[in-house]
Amino acid sequence: MDCSLDSEGPLRKKTKKSCDTPPEDQEEEIIMKIKEHVEKLREKSREVRDKIELAKGNGMVATNKIETWLARADTILSDAMAVCESKQTGLNWDTRIAAAQLSQLRECLSDQPSDVAQPPSVLHIDVHAVLLPSQVLFVEQARQHIIEDAEGMIGIWGPVGVGKTLLLKAINNSFESGNSLIPSSSNRGDPPFDFVIYITALEVCLVQNIQSEIIQRLKMHDRGDSLTTQATRISKFLQDKSFLVLLDGLHCNLNLAAVGLPPLGNQGQLKRKVVITTRSRSLCDQMRVNRAINVPGLKINEALQLFQECIGNDSLYSEPRIGALAKDLVEQLRVLPSELIRIGSAMRRKREPGQWQNILAVAKELMPIKDQEASSLAEGIVITKLKQCLQNLRGRRNDVNHVIELGKREGKVATNQMNNWLASVDTNIFVGMVICESEQNELNWDLSVIAAGLLGRLQECLNGQPSVVTVEALPPSVQEMPCSSIEQQPSRVEIFEEAMEYIKDSSVGVIGIWGLGGAGKTHLLTNINNAFRGDSLFHYVIFVTASKEGSEEKIQGEIGKELKLKFPEGGDVKSRANIILDFLKTRKFLILLDDVWNRIDLEAVGIPYPLGRSKVVLTTRSKTVCGQMDVRKEINIARLPDDEAWQLFQDKVGQGTLSSSPRIEALAKELVEEMKGLPLALITVGRAMYGKSNPKQWESAIHYMKQSCCDGDDQDLHMENDVFRRLKFSYDSLRNETLRQCFLTCSLWPEDKEILLGDLIRCLIGLGLVDECDIHGSYRKAHSLIGELTAACLLDSCDTVYSDDYILNRGTYTFAHQEMPVKGVKMHDVIRDMAIWISCGCSDNKDKWVVRAGVAANLTIRAIPWSRAECISLMYSKIEKLHPVPLFTCSTNLKRLYLKNNRLDERIFGAIQSFTELTYLDLSANRIKQIPEELFALVNLEHLDLSGNMGLREVPIRLRELTKLKFLYLGGTDIERIPKEVISCLTELQVIDLMTTNYTYEIIQELCTLTNLKAVDIIIEGDDRYESLRKAAGIPFRDLIISKLRYTDELCLAVDTLTGDIAGRTLNELHVVFSLTMEQIIVGDELGKPFDALSVLVFRDLFNLTNIVMWEGTSSLQALFPRLTHLYVDSCIKLQHLSWATYLPCLEYLRVDGCMDMKQICMGAGQESSNTFHCLKYLILTKNYKLASLCGSDVTFPCLELLIIKHCRKLKRLPFTMQSLPHKLTKLDIYPWDNLEWEDEGVKSFLERRFCVVDSDSDLDSDSGAYSYLDLVSDSDAYDAWNTKLEWED
C-alpha cells in the first residue's frame, strides 16, 4: 500500500485523498498489531525503568541515550493509543497514519540502547571552607582554561598549605549542574565533559593505584587484570567520551598513557583534559603540562580577615602592639591559608607582645623550610646537634668581623657576598636560639622537622663561607645627591609617586618626564635617585646629565665614570658599548638620564635591550623627544599650584624679609602671581629679593615682571642670566627658523590671553610663515607647527572651547572665523617674556619688538619707540586714539602693526600713514566706519584685516592701488558694495573674506580672474546670486553662506551643483539659512563627488524644510562627507528626523535646536545602526518640543563627552543600557531631569554622577541677536523686524 503521512502528526485531518480505502478486515489487522506492540513496548519500558532504579542503588545514573529512548517510547505509546481510539469513535481515522504508527512502534522496540546506566558525570565533594574572593577568581580562571584551552594538560602548583586541594575540589564541584559554590558556574547549559574524575594521588603514586581509582569511579568491574589489560579497558571506555581527570597531590612523574588515558586535548567534538596539583613546578615540566598555574597567596585583606576570625578580637586588641605584630605575622603566612587558620587558633588569647614577637621571628625563618622532609632523627638528638653547630658558627662569625674591621682601616670593604653570608649567619643564629630556648611548642610545629631543616642551613653557612672577605671599595650602587625635599609640594609628591609606580612596573621600560624648562624636572629626578638609597630593587642607579650637547660618546663617558669602568685608550663608541653591555647585561639597573634634547641611541651606548626588569627614566623639555626615545609611560610636570608656589618663594626670600614691612607680604604675593608657578623663576627672584625691606624695591620688581622684559632694567632680579638664557635652549633647539618665528609671534597676544587657533593660523599665513600650494595645506602645516611648539613645552594647549556663539554668529553675518572645534593655546608668562626678550635681540636691541598688548589703562602711547621698532602689538588695549607720529620720528623699519580689538576709528589711518614699509596691518574689531585716503599711502601692505568693524559700509575704489595685498579680510562689516575693478586689480590676492552682503555677479566674475587665489569666504543671498555661484566653478570657496533662497523648493547638496570641483576640494564650512520655501534637501548627485574638506555644515531657519534625503544613487555618505565633523540644525520646524547623519564617519558635534516637529533624531539606520556615532563627542538638543526619542538602544555613543538636552519635554527615555553606557561622558545637563523614565536604575546612577549645569546654558537659550522661528510665532514685532531684514522682493 503506497500511502504518505502528513509530516505534522498522526492525528492531523487528511486534506487530499491519494489512495483507495483498504478493506475493513485489513484495518482490523492493523489495529490488533498496534495493540500487540503497545503491550510489548510498555513491558520493555517498565523493565528499563526497573534496571535504572536498581543501578541508582549502586551509585549509577541513567544514560542520556536511555533517557531519550524512554521519552520517545512514552510519546509513541500515547500516539498509538490515540490511533486506536480514533478507530473506535470513527473520528479522524486514517489508515495511513495507523500504518505509520505501527512502524514507529516496531522501530522503538528494536532501537532500545544496550547501556541503561552509567556513573554520574560529576561526584560532589564536600568543601567545608567558604572560598575567599581571590580563590573564587582563581577557580573561575582555571575552569576557563580547562574548557577553552586546546591542549590537554594543566598543572596547578604551590607549597603545602596554599589550598591546592580546596581549589581542585571547588573546580570539580563547579561542573555540577546548579552548583552554587562558584556562582558564575551555574546555569551554564550542558556540561562540557561526560565524566569528571577526581583522584587523590598517594605519596608513592603507582599506575596501578590510579587505574583502581578510575575503575572504581567509572563503576567498571575490577577483575584483577594486568596493568596493560586494565589500561586497555579504561582506554576503550573513554575513547568516545569527553572527560576531565583531576589528580590531586601528585609527588612524582606519572605515565598517563600507561594508566590508559586516551590522547589528551581537543579531539574533534571530544574534550580530554587532565589537571594535576603538585608542590613542585619542576614536576609540571616533567609531566609536560601545557599550562602551569601557580596558586597565589591570599590578598592581604583576605588573610587579615581569615586570621582575625581564627584569633578573635579579644586577643588582637588586648594590647596596642599586638595588632601590628599580628599584621606582620599574617604577611608572613598569607601564602598558606591552612597555616593562618592553625596558627591563628593557637594564638587565641595570647596577650603578651613578647609571645607574638617570638612567634613572628620563628615564622619569618621557618616558613620557607616548612615544606621540607621531616628528619628521621629523634627531636632531642636534633636539638643537641643544633646547639653544637650554633656555637661553631658564632666563633666563625666573630673571626670574620675581626678581619673586616682591620680591612676598613686600609680602605677596604667587605664583599657583598661576605655581607650576605654574615646576614644569613645572624638570622640563622637568632632563629636557632629561639628554637633551643623554647620551653613548649605552642604552634604545634614538629620541632624535629624544623630543627633538621635549620641544622642543614647552619651547616651550609659553615661550609659556604666566602674565601674573599674584603675588596677595594667600589662606588655605592646609589650615589646620594644633594637635593631639597619635595614633601612640602603635594603636586610634586604625586608625580614622584607616579614615577616610582612606573619604575616598579615590570611591563614599563622607558619612562619620560617632560615639561617646561625650569619646572623642576631635574629636582624630581634627583629625588628619584635618592629614593633608592638602601633599596635593593636595582644593582645600580646611574644618574647621567645629557644636556644639549648630549651624544652617545658623552653618555658612555658618564656611565663609565659612575661605574668605574676602564675604557681602552683610543677606543671608539662601539668598543665602549661592548664594555658597558658586558657589565650591565647581567644586572638590574636604573639609568636616570637628565636633560635630553635629541634622540640618543641607548643601544649604541651599550645599554642592554630589551631592558627586561631594568629601567631608563629621562627628562626632557620636548614631548617629541619622548616619542623618539621609545618612552612607554610619560609624565608631564606642570607649574606649581598657587599655594605651593607661594611656599617655595617664602622659603627662598626668608620670613624675616616678608615681615620687615606690613606691605611687603602683599607685594610679594603679587610678584609671585607674575611667575605663574615656574619654580626656576620663583627660586631666582626669591633669592634676589632676599633682605629687601623697602616696599619701593618690591614695586619696582613687580613693574618689571608685568612689562615685557625688554622694557625695563633687570636690576637685581637676574631674570636674563639665570632664567631666560637657560630657557632659551628650548628655543634654540627648535628644528628650523620657521618654528622659531612662529613661537615668537605667539608673544604678541596679551599676557594670559588664550590664543584661538583660527586667529593664530591666520596670522602665520599672513606673515608668510606658512605658505603651501592650497589653503588646506597651509592650515595643516600650521597645525603641525603649533603641535611641535606644544610638544616642546613652549605653548600650553587649552581645553576645547565649544563656542556655540561662533556658529550662531556666522549664520547672522557677524564674523568670528575659527577652525572647528574651537581650540586655543597659551603662553606661560615667563616664556612669553623670554620670547619678547629674544625678539629684542636678547636685550641688544630692546626697541625691535614692542609688545603692549592688553595693558589697557597702563599704556602710554607716546612712550612707544615708533622710530626704531620693527613690530608693534597694541592688541586688546582699549585704545581710542593714536596721535599722529611726527614725520621725523617715522619708522622706516616698522613692518608689522597689530591694533586688533581696540576702540579706534578712522583717524587711525592718519596716525600711521607715514609707516610706508608696513606689510602687515591688523585693525580688526575696532570702530572704523570708513576707509580714508591715508590708507593708500601704505603701498607695501600684504596683509590687511578690517574684519569686525561693524560700522564700515563701503570700500573706496582706491583700494585697488594696494596691489601687493595677498590677504584681505572684510568679514563682519556692513559693507554694502565693492566698486567694480577693485578686486580684479588685486592680482596677488591669496585669501579674501567677503562675509558681508549684497555682492553682485560682477564681483564673482572678478574673483574668477585672480590666479593666485587660494580661499574665499563669502555670503550668497537670493536665487539669482545662487545661480551665479553655480557658474563660478573656478573659485576656491572656503567658507560659504547661502541665504534667502525664495524660489528654491529643493536644494541639491552636491559638489557640481553648488560650487564645482575646486570648491569641492577647498570648501571647509557651509551654511544654508533663511528660507520659507525650501522643502527638501537632496544630498549627493549622480556623479557622487566628495566634499573633501567640508568640516562644518549648518541648516538654519529653513522653516518649510520637511526632509533631508540621500540622492537615490548615492552609495554612502562616508564617501560624500569624509571629513564632516560638525552638523548644526536650527529652527527647521517641519523637519522630523536626521537619520542620514548616522552615516557621517567623522561627526563629532551634533546640535539640533528649535526643530518643533522632530520626533526622533535617528529613525532607524538599519544594519549600520549599531555603533553608528563612533566619533560623536558633543550632542546638544534644545527646544525640540515633540522630540520623544533620540534613537534605538542599539545605537551606541562610545566617544560621547558632553550631552545637553533642554526643553524637550516629550523625551522620556535615553538610548542607553548597561551594555552601551557612554563611558567617556564627563558632562551631562538635562532639563527637566525628573521627566525621564528609567528601565535600569544602573543607567540612571551612572548618568547622575556626571550631571552638572553646563556654564554655557545662557548661550543655549540665546540666539545671539538672531530671530528664530520660536520667537516669531509668539512675537509679531519680532516677526515684522525679521521679515524686514530678509528684504523680500515682493
TrEMBL record:
Nucleotide-binding as UniProt keyword: yes
Name of a matching Pfam family: NB-ARC
Residues annotated as transmembrane: none
Keyword tags: ATP-binding, Leucine-rich repeat, Nucleotide-binding, Plant defense, Repeat
InterPro entries: AAA+_ATPase, Apaf_helical, Leu-rich_rpt, Leu-rich_rpt_typical-subtyp, LRR_dom_sf, LRR_R13L4/SHOC2-like, NB-ARC, P-loop_NTPase
Domain AAA+ ATPase residues, every copy: 150-299, 507-771
Gene3D superfamilies in the cross-refs: Helical domain of apoptotic protease-activating factors, P-loop containing nucleotide triphosphate hydrolases, Ribonuclease Inhibitor
GO BP annotation list: defense response to bacterium; innate immune response-activating signaling pathway; plant-type hypersensitive response
Alphabetized GO MF terms: ADP binding; ATP binding
This protein's record includes keyword Cytoplasm: no
Chain segments carrying region Disordered: 1-29
Similarity annotation: Belongs to the disease resistance NB-LRR family.
The name this protein goes by in its record: AAA+ ATPase domain-containing protein
